[in-house]
Amino acid sequence: FSWPPFVMGSAFLVILLIMKKLGKTNKKLRFLRASGPLTAVVLGTLFVKIFRPTAISVVGEIPQGLPSFSIPRGFEHLMSLMPTAILITGVAILESVGIAKALAAKNGYELDSNKELFGLGLSNICGSFFSAYPATGSFSRSAVNHESGAKTGLSGIIMGIIICSALLFMTPLFTDIPQCALAAIVISAVTGLVDYEEAIFLWGIDKKDFFLWAMTFTTTLTFGIEIGVLVGVGFSLAFVIHESANPHIAVLGRLPGTTVYRNTLQYPEAYTYNGIVVVRVDAPIYFANISYIKDRLREYELKLPNSNRGPDVGRVYFVILEMSPVTYIDSSAVQALKDLHQEYKARDIQIAIANPNRQVHLLLSRAGIIDMIGAGWCFVRVHDAVQVCLQHVRSSSSNAIKLSPQASGNLTESPKAQQRYGFLRNLWKAQDGNGSAGDEAQSLLRQNLV
């Protein structure tokens, strides 16, 4: 740390901020906003040329002229440079799209990322024939360009012409430009891109998004834009994976006076039926979340929801999966559903599927799950599934089945019913034999009993 460049840079920063403020508030002084960076460079250069301070670092000598055109003739270093090239490409994409989206949001226009990346790739291809550095969308230079009042891509063309002219004829003038003046120009430009209102909004809406914003902001200030962007993307992916692996699962209840079933937490007036649990999975089912889903289903079986309709049977006989939000299901989830079906079957619990989309239904059919649980237990509406299950619950209750106090759900039949199987055992036997369970379910559905 050195005091002279700090004091000089702070003075230039104050001058730039004052000129920017005057240019924004007074239309007659709008030129001050664009001329601020040039003023800082000229004043800094004059100060160095006159006083020659040794503590102030300057840009130094810049080679004059443009690089010559050349064509690569050997590719012996291709494999060794490939990992570095891939890393540079990833950082370039993140940095370029990040600043482009920031400026698009600030100025209220739509951004086409494909066009941005196409132009970026084309510029790098052309620059490779002149031994140029990889070109990216720079935060600092884009911020300076924006704060100078640039509105269209024409500013980039003019800036390119000026840079080429400066490299050809004006490099001696850049030797004594103090670096603290350039730093002040960048800081004054970037401060306008820090959206404090967005941070306050995120804090009030979602603490997780605010944490992601704060982490990316702090890392960028501490370690630089490349590390900051990578850390931000990494945490974003971690949040996405966590949300995907722990999807929202809701127990549905029937709204009074309707055949509509909604989340009982969102609609406390919705009621459920004893012995029947209706569960909705609000995400695709795949290898990352199937274990979580199975754990929640077991939890619903052991901890019975507060049901208030139908006969009091004391345990769960039916689990209805409302699958309309499920857009995809993979092979791991298919195998897990088969295992879950076998577990439920051993405990005399029937699975029913309601409203799967076409793709999910075809996959379940090809995997044999529809045949395994029975085609009659796949319904178009949740209400249809509930009515059929409710009739089975009432039938089992009429058979005078007494439930043991154990949580395992083993049945103790009354003497009157000891000479015949329980209703659900007959149901499984019929299903394994000739598929009559599906016909029985459909006949109950046609009765339209509520």
UniProtKB/TrEMBL annotation:
Annotated ranges, domain STAS: 266-389
TM segment ranges: 6-23, 35-60, 80-104, 116-133, 153-174, 181-205, 211-241
Matching InterPro entries: SLC26A/SulP_dom, SLC26A/SulP_fam, STAS_dom, STAS_dom_sf
The organism's place on the tree of life at top rank: Eukaryota
PROSITE patterns, A to Z: STAS
Membrane topology: Multi-pass membrane protein
Location, primary (coarse class): membrane
Gene Ontology CC annotations of this record: membrane
Listed PANTHER family: SULFATE TRANSPORTER (PTHR11814)
Stored NCBIfam families: sulP
Protein name in UniProt: STAS domain-containing protein
Annotated organism of origin: Aegilops tauschii subsp. strangulata
